[in-house]
UniProtKB/TrEMBL annotation:
This is Anti-proliferative protein domain-containing protein. Pfam families: BTG. Residues 1-108 form the Anti-proliferative protein domain. GO terms for cellular component: cytoplasm; nucleus. Coiled coil: none annotated.
């Protein structure tokens, strides 16, 4: 199951790279993969590949919209819905079953094979793609000649086109997904990406971890401006300071009576004033008083 989902996820990511930042794609796909694992694991039977196969048909994009789970997960990491929608062909349906992941795309005449292999491929699981997504060359205009045509029919089985040539997966072109115990994943990260019942998650989940790179989770990523490591302003702390300044100024009758300085005029933006009960301006709260908030 994990091999099939990993291949599916990397296939979808191919269409997103030319519009969406890599870090957002990686976190989105990690979460989407975990949602799919949760959705599939109860009825996943390698010895009966067609069992409950209807439950594993994903309408990623249709003329009426996109997969609701996919949209929700993307939104949780700041991906714009319009960008997500524009990344994919007009319609794209994916069929994920033990040993085979296929796809139907609008205006493409044949079924696209995303991956085909052993139904027990998880015994030899590797984090990087080994199917169609492996052949993505980074050129979004060349997807049809690389990814969509990665598999060609040879005798009675299907193998990746050009399989005789050595082709390594470049890190910037794939989403490597390792397997970890679900107990290692913070419940906050699961809830933040739409999991309603934590008890439903399978014992093993995916984790995106790029070598020689800072590890990001949904929580740590949410603390940054999307796409950078710069921390966001602490708005809650700023509001506490504003409220404290208002309280100190209003309770100081002399400050209210003597105030004659226009609100915020000629003062740095980090100093806040409070409006008096009659609409007058309060006196700026000193740093000495504000220090009590953090003492």
């Amino acid at each position: 199951m994990y091999t099939e989902i990993k291949e599916l996820i990397n296939f979808l990511a191919v269409f997103m790279h030319h519009r969406i930042a890599r870090r957002r794609i990686s976190l989105c796909m990690e979460s989407f993969a975990n949602h799919l694992a949760t959705r599939f694991h109860d009825n996943w039977r390698p010895d009966e590949p067609k069992h409950a196969q209807a439950e594993r048909i994903l309408a990623i994009k249709t003329r009426g919209g996109m997969d609701e789970m996919f949209i929700a997960v993307a939104a949780s990491v700041g991906i714009n819905g319009d960008d997500l929608y524009a990344s994919f062909p007009t319609t794209i349906f994916i069929y994920c079953n033990p040993g085979e992941v296929t796809c139907r795309i609008s205006d493409y005449p044949s079924i696209v094979i995303i991956w085909r292999g052993d139904v027990d491929a998880d015994k030899f699981y590797i984090p990087t793609p080994i199917g169609a997504a492996k052949y993505y060359d980074g050129n979004s205009h060349n997807i049809q000649n690389t990814v969509l045509n990665a598999y060609v029919k040879q005798e009675s089985m299907l193998r990746p086109a050009g399989h005789a040539k050595k082709r390594d997966v470049k890190p910037e072109r794939c989403i490597p997904l390792t397997l970890v115990s679900s107990a290692e994943i913070d419940a906050y990260d699961l809830l933040a990406t739409g999991f309603i019942d934590i008890n439903e998650v399978p014992p093993v989940l995916f984790r995106y971890k790029r070598a020689n790179s800072k590890q990001f989770t949904v929580r740590s990523f949410a603390a940054t401006r999307f796409g950078s490591h710069r921390p966001r302003p602490d708005h809650k702390a700023m509001r506490r300071i504003q409220h404290a300044a208002a309280y100190l100024a209003i309770t100081n009758a002399n400050a209210i009576q003597q105030a004659n300085v226009p609100l915020l005029e000629n003062f740095p933006v980090n100093f806040q004033f409070a409006m008096g009960p009659e609409g007058g301006n309060g006196k700026c709260c000193g740093c000495k008083d504000l220090s009590l908030l953090f003492g």
